[in-house]
Amino acid sequence: QVQLVESGGGLVQAGATLRLSCVVSGLSFSSATMGWFRQAPGKEREFVAGIKGPGDYILYADFVKGRFTISRDYAKNTVHLQMNALKPEDTALYYCVAADALLTRIDFYSPRNYPDWGQGTQVTVSS
Question: In 3D, which of 54, 59, 38, 41 has the Cα closest to residue 107?
Answer without folding.
Answer: 59
